[in-house]
Amino acid sequence: MESLTEARVMPVGEMTAPCLRVDIEVSAGVPGIPPQPRPAGARCAWLLVRVHTEAVGSLILEVPPEGLTGEQVTAGIMGELGPEITRRSEMQGGESSLPAFLASRAEILGRAPKMTAVVCTRERPQGLEACLRSLLAQRYPSFSVLVVDNAPMTDRSKSVVSSLTSSAVEYVVEPRRGLSWARNRALEMVDEGIVAWIDDDETADVHWLAELARGFHDHPEADAVSGVMVPGELETWAQVWFEQYGGHNKHRGFTSAVFSPATAHVQSPFYPLPPFGTGGNMAFRVDALTRIGGFDVSLGAGSRCRGGEDTRAFTDLLCSGGTLVYQPTAVTCHFHRRSFEELQQQMRGNGVGLTAFYTSLVLTRPRCVPELIRLLPMVYRDLFGSESLRSGALPSTYPVELRRANRRGLLIGPVAYLRARSEAAQLDQMTARRDLVRRRRRRLGAGLLDRRPEAAGSE
Length: 459
Prior knowledge:
The protein is α/β, with parallel strands linked by helices.
């Protein structure tokens, strides 16, 4: 009976590298984890647990040298997620023989709205190809894919799109560098329906679009839906450290949530922790994004601010009276930075983006300043307190250089936003002048063509 001993669930602070990354579909039977030698001698496993394809939770199991049997893994999962798994396993879809979750998905797909999946990319051909292949494999009846190549230095991204030979994928270039410029270029191309965003360092679950559609179906008032980003691999210490810091979801978890002006007393639209969502897994009604003016081009990757454009869009949506749904059944896998140097830069960028976001609010929404002042104690707690969602669960061995990089970024953010805003305005003016010159040249060319017959006749 020793084999039935429950596997130990590890706190995230005890996770080590490498850590196995395993998807478990409970309804199909739970596999064991083989003994060593496992890949690189992993001593733990990060599990995404599903019931009838529905993601219901995650946990980390300690894996001894002799491995774990399927019974041990099952015991560990049930000890952590048992009530949720039991409830979902027993739910049936009314008259349908399908489980309730699958029956509801079938109903949603029967009236699926048209979606455009957008990938904004810059010189990451391998990641882009993996992302696009996951999108083309979507089990969704009505969608297209748009690739926005942002200020490309080579034609590698274009070559990836061409190699797929799929009419469902469209390619366009945005010459102005910055993720927000690329996002807004996509909005110029997609004038109606729903636009879903995924990054070029992610892959999408085959039901990703269907589950985003679920958010809009279950909440017809929704202007936007965000999903959950789980780690695609945890092979290096840098990837493990990022996940310990909270990953992209900062412990938002697998419980759905609705945000609107009616919920502002629960979580202020000016305080995105836990986050409302993440830019690499979100969908908007196009008219809602147009209503808030698109994305702030002074924010986002590729700008001095390094991020924050997604958070600003969520905040603007909520402040304009919109509704946002967090739908954790919509899953994407993110491949975290593999090296310490890359992670250090990312942590710094996260800090820059956060205070740049707040600076943008102060400058463009000055009426929110009293609310921001009221939130200061909560901000201090979550930046420096022992119960912080960002750092409260970090082990004592967590690299101090990473925390320092994040805090230095926080100091840089306000100045970065001011400079980025000035640069964006200049770039916008240059683009407007260039477009004006092009229009004049076209008109002049058309005028010359119109005069040619007359000139020929006079001869």
